[in-house]
Amino acid sequence: MFGVIRAIFLAAGLVRGASLQSVTGWGSNPSNIQMSIYVPDRLASKPPVVVALHGCGGNGQQMYSSSRFQTFADQYGFILIYPSSNSNQGMACWDNHSPQSLTHNGGGDTQGIVQQVQYTLNKYNGDADRVYVVGFSSGAMMTNNLAATYPDVFEAGAPFAGVPAACWAGAGGSNPLNTNTSCPNAGVTKSAQDWGNYARNAYSGYNGRRTRMQIWHGASDNLVLPQLFQEELKQWSNVLGVSLTSTNSNNPESGYTQYLYGDGKQLVGYIAAGLGHGAVPYHESMVLSFFGVLTTPATSTITTTRTSTITTTMTPTTTPRTTPAMTTTTPGNGGGSQSKWGQCGGIGWTGFTACSPPAACSTLNPYYAQCL
């Protein structure tokens, strides 16, 4: 009888047992990150999955507490994943710079986050065609890198105060205290084609669906400068093959300018006048509407027992991921050349500086150049 009564109250939204849960045993976890998950009491029959990524100095709990995505999850039955970066990474920032994290199946933070997604899809019968990612600052940078390294996983993304994918490549770190901060300080300006090549290189040979993007930035951001907003738009307009259609003032509200590409379904940007780093609201309903998860409210009730920590040794049903062999070079002896996509320059680089035709060496920042 009590179970029936509880089911009635759950259906009416009067009993709410969902909370943020810590999860272990979700994958090989190549970079030692953590996972927290929010599973609403009522799930959609095949729930979408949204990954929400914190900025430097934060964690999954902080991202959960500082946003309202879970209130929409309660109504529409999608699942939220709140990863936490490795605390040993400088200032608890995400790894947005290493070859491992910037390469599909490379073994870095990007692969760890995707393992969390795979675990969630398997455990809750999630919809693999409706996986999304949103992030702030370092998490926004990771959002762009996930869109580049795993376009086959993420259908859409929404970075807030981010930088283009691979902007930190070769910098030796990706936090504000790093010796090379040319990326967030807008010292990296590339053509749309070059930025597009860096994104495509993250998953070389991939020709499938590309991640749709909704990009947000503050026009008074003095940490991740507003020029990076334009560089992001250049990158994704090239990758997605869309052109700027219009700029619209006071959209979605006073002080914002909308950059509409094509019909806005693939790429759209919003920059807010007078707002600095971290001051741009998440606009959760707009983000989730762009993703496409605000559909029919959920009706099915989850019946699993909740505990403060979920531990599992479940083996993923997907084919195990393997780390691809990384391309390396040795110092040039007698005028050797680097193959396409290989590093060809940068501070401290001692390998080949020439590229095999038709590739040419393109400088991304003082620490990294690549054959494109």
Automatic annotation (TrEMBL):
Protein name stated in the entry: Carboxylic ester hydrolase
Keyword GTP-binding: no
Biological role stated in the UniProt entry: Esterase involved in the hydrolysis of xylan, a major structural heterogeneous polysaccharide found in plant biomass representing the second most abundant polysaccharide in the biosphere, after cellulose.
GO cellular component terms, semicolon-separated: extracellular region
GO biological process annotation, one example: xylan catabolic process
One matching Pfam family: CBM_1
Keywords, alphabetical: Carbohydrate metabolism, Glycoprotein, Hydrolase, Polysaccharide degradation, Secreted, Serine esterase, Signal
